[in-house]
Amino acid sequence: MPDELDVLERHPKTSEPGELMRPHNMTCFGCGPESPHGLHLEMYAGEGFSVDAKMPVQQWMEGGPGVIHGGILSSAFDDVMGMTPRLIGPAAVTAHLQVDFLQPIPVGKTLHLHAEILGKQRRKIYVEGVAHLGDPDRPVARANGLFVQIDVRAHFADHVENSAKAAEYLGGKPQL
Ligand SMILES: CCCCCCCCCCCC(=O)SCCNC(=O)CCNC(=O)[C@H](O)C(C)(C)COP(=O)(O)OP(=O)(O)OC[C@H]1O[C@@H](n2cnc3c(N)ncnc32)[C@H](O)[C@@H]1OP(=O)(O)O
């Protein structure tokens, strides 16, 4: 992370601590309630510049016998960490994501995910993630990511027609 950072301020219209946050997109793999095969993460704004979510580790998420697949864990981090930019302003997309897998994560447990903005420089937002199984002092995974703020309309302009929600987006509702 660079030394010279911008001052962080919560966006006046962002969710209050404890409040459920709006999904990225209704069919987002991570948080979209209408995603047919998604994680269906419900994210809550935390104190400061943080976001929390809980994810029951289900059978279909299995990688090695009885434990979570690393890609599912990475997706969960990506999505929860990718929600933190909403606390300070425009949406951001993942430019870089690094995950440390510290312990096997068993099917049947509930994974607690916490993401927090460490700093921002221009459009770059540096975010860390940590996951545990109920005891915050015993993390089972950690992540670090760089998220870059975008102009949502311009960024998705060439792709929005492929969205499951294309008709709504192209009809101007919801606003991209
Ligand atoms: C309806 C609501 C929807 C809401 C939409 C939100 C959905 C979020 C979903 C969860 C998160 C995801 O999965 S997002 C999906 C996965 N991610 C993506 O598809 C992103 C694909 N990549 C890109 O589109 C692009 O590379 C961008 C936007 C990340 C950056 O391109 P750009 O806009 O041209 O900007 P660029 O000048 O290159 O970079 C800006 C600054 O970031 C730095 N930078 C860029 N990439 C990197 C990198 N990998 N590692 C280090 N640094 C980097 C640059 O050096 C520069 O620093 P400096 O010069 O300022 O120092």
Fold and architecture overview:
It is found in: Cell projection, Ruffle membrane; Cytoplasm; Membrane. Pfam families: 4HBT (PF03061). InterPro entries: HotDog_dom_sf, THEM4/THEM5_acyl-CoA_thioest, Thioestr_dom. The structure is a single chain. The chain has 176 residues and is an alpha+beta fold. It has a single domain, classed as Roll (Thiol Ester Dehydrase, Chain A), CATH 3.10.129. Helices cover 12% and strands 30% of the residues. The chain has a six-stranded antiparallel β-sheet with strand order 1-2-4-5-6-3, covered by helices on one side. The radius of gyration is 16 Å and the shape is globular. 27% of the residues are buried. It binds dodecyl-COA.
Q: What does this entry show, briefly?
A:
This protein is of the alpha+beta class and 176 residues long. It is built from 3 helices and 6 strands.
Q: Layout of helices and strands, plus pairs?
A:
Blueprint: E1 43-45, E2 50-56, H1 70-81, E3 92-101, E4 110-121, E5 124-132, E6 139-149, H2 152-156, H3 166-170
The chain binds dodecyl-COA.
Q: Please give the number of β-strands.
A: 6
Going by helix content, strand content and strand pairing, the class is: alpha+beta
Number of domains: 1
Distance between the termini: 30 Å
- Arrangement of strands in the largest sheet: 1-2-4-5-6-3
Low-confidence stretches: none
Strand percentage lies at 25-35%
Under the CATH scheme, which architecture would be assigned? Roll
Radius of gyration: 16 Å
In CATH terms, the superfamily is Hotdog Thioesterase
**Proportion of residues in helical segments:** 10-25%
Average pLDDT rating: 96
- The CATH topology is Thiol Ester Dehydrase, Chain A
The topology string of helices and strands comes to EEHEEEEHH
Give the CATH class: Alpha Beta
Keywords: Apoptosis, Cell membrane, Cell projection, Cytoplasm, Fatty acid metabolism, Hydrolase, Lipid metabolism, Membrane, Transit peptide
Enzyme class: hydrolase
Main location: membrane
Domain Thioesterase: 66-136
